[in-house]
Amino acid sequence: MKILEVKNVTKRFGGLTAVNNVTFDLEEGEILGLIGPNGAGKTTLFNCINGVYKPTEGQIIFKGKDITGLPTYRSAHLGLSRTHQIVRPLNELTVLENAMVGACYGRENMNLGDARKTAMEMLEFVGLAEKSDVLAGALNVAQKKRLEMARALSAKPYLLLLDEVLAGLNTAEVTHMLDTIRKIREQGVTIIMIEHIMHAVMSLSDRLIVLNYGSLIAEGSPEEVSQNPEVIEAYLGDPDLAARLLEEEKA
Amino acid sequence: MKRIFKPGLLIPVAIIVVLAIWPLLSGNSASSREAMFTLIMSMALASSLNIILGYTGYVSFGHIVFFGIGGYAGFWAITELGWHILPAALLGGFMAALIAWLLGLAVLRLRGAYFALATIGILEAMKALVINLDFLGGPVGLEMHFSEYKRYGGPMESLWMVYWSMVFLAILVTVVSYYIKTSKFGLGLMAIREDEDAAEVMGVITPRAKTWAYVLSAVFPGIIGVLFFFKNGNIEPGDAFRLHFSIEWIVMIMLGGAGTVLGPVLGGGIYQWLRKTLLTSPIFKDYQLVVAGVMLLVIVLFVPTGIIGWLRARSAKLRRVFE
């Protein structure tokens, strides 16, 4: 079953087209990797999906319901959660309270008691349980990333948007986070992840889509995408360009 | 964590109760009653403002506008319509809440300094409006005939009635403040305070939550305004809409600890006690506001979380005692 359909979504900021006519589907239970060079429009696309931005054109269908332009809290209630690339902890609240906000106001609209229980489970799941009484502002970056994750999971989402949860983590932390993401998928949560760490995204994703200058330039399995010349060009520049320039120099 | 003994609520209520019965125990009951009235009124007003300022993070600079609106509505109902003080006080609260709701639709879209400035604009606009409304007495305001107090058994009895009503309101505000702070609604407000966009992404219906917080923070100043001006016997725009009183409420909150239940109660008490001491001291009597200004500066620079916030940050044990 399709959980998400993105149809011809375009987002313009004045003269800049940040996302250009992007269309893709997502099957339930899938992990979709969203990659592309810096400034390709990946986060903007996330913002269009969960309603932070209203797309200039196009439609977002979530579980058969048109959610285009709905406020973000509505999409949260429907079961769409996300983490932020630049972490946004609620600094003066404790780690537990942070996760409780997710549980209280997420899909299941829990009361405080249930929220406390769920939040604690999720903190244990991401490995932050012993920090539950600490103010969120006192965590380090890796812990804040895990808090973002616990907060999003406490909402019991159907679809989780992960925006660079691995960025800024060291190798051990990356391995830990990859395990966590795999476990989330085992619980039946569908995931779209934006990631720059290629080995991670290649090993986790069932399918990849590639954005460049706002347009979708490739889609397919990790193997297919990594062989795609357009993708290689987007990341590394034209592989034949140097050779051609040398030729011209000689001539 | 369901317990009958909730220190977070009991401590502030106990402080109010002890102060409230002080005039009965001291010899000079009339003068200490007046002092305590000011003290307890400040606690109630600061606690009300704390709902929008401390919990939600929206600095309402001109919050006294609701005190004035409520005061005018109630005073007008008493003098012109011959209402009893009780329905008049409720009318004052209702009008303040209604206007907060309407204004909130517009100004709560603003954030940070823009919101703060807008609330000052609202205050000044409301003052100018009232000065130009003839049925509210224009710039001279309204007066109440002395005989009005007969209805409540004479002036002395009226003063005591207003006093105990204020004590009741202060306790009520504290209870409301505590239950907001420890509720799911309060958690949503604090999420808005910390990061409004993140709160919205997590599902907090921010426009609705902010509007409720604003309305709740306006209703009690509206009621208190009616009591205050009824006790005064007259109301005029300069008293009802005085910006520097609003700013003093902010000082009280910052002193005690914004976003805590006990903070505004403690801050309101300490501030008014200090003010009274300074006003009656021959050296400082003219510099009372200067001291308040310096105090605000020192707090913001060195103890931005206030007394209670500072204590709460010390240990988890204190966090369980002070809300």
How does this structure look, described?
The complex is a heterodimer of chains A (251) and B (323). Chain A has 2 domains: 2-79 and 158-250, Rossmann fold; 89-156. Helix content of chain A is 41%, strand content 25%. Chain A has helices spanning 42-50, 72-78, 95-105, 112-126, 141-154, 171-186, 198-204, 222-227, 229-236, 241-250; strands at 2-13, 16-27, 31-35, 57-62, 65-66, 80-82, 159-163, 190-194, 207-212, 215-220. In chain A, strand 1 (2-13) and strand 2 (16-27) form a beta hairpin. Chain A is globular and about 75 Å long. The model of chain A has no long low-confidence stretch (mean pLDDT 91). With 323 residues, chain B is an all-alpha fold. Chain B is built from 15 helices and 2 strands. A two-stranded antiparallel sheet of chain B has the order 1-2. In chain B, 50% of the residues are buried. Classes of the chains: A alpha/beta (251), B mainly alpha (323). The A-B interface holds A 50, 52, 71-73, 76-77, 81-82, 84, 88-93, 97, 100-102, 104-107, 111-112, 115, 133, 151, 155 and B 183-184, 187-188, 190-191, 193-195, 197-206, 259, 316.
Which blocks of ≥5 consecutive residues of chain B have pLDDT under 50?
none
Low-confidence stretches of chain A are none
State the helix count of chain A: 10
- Mind telling me the CATH class of chain B? Mainly Alpha
Structural class assignment of chain B: mainly alpha
Q: What does the average pLDDT of chain B come to?
A: 92
Please name the CATH topology of the largest domain in chain A. Answer: Rossmann fold
**Global geometry of chain B:** globular
Strand order within the widest beta sheet of chain A: 6-7-8-3-9-10
For the record, the count of structural domains of chain A works out to 2
Which sequence of SSEs, written as H and E, runs from N to C of chain B?
Answer: HHHHHEHHHHEHHHHHH
Biggest sheet layout of chain B: 2 strands, antiparallel
What's the order of the H and E elements of chain A? EEEHEEHEHHHEHEHEEHHH
Query: What is the makeup of the main sheet of chain A?
Result: 6 strands, mixed
Oligomer: heterodimer
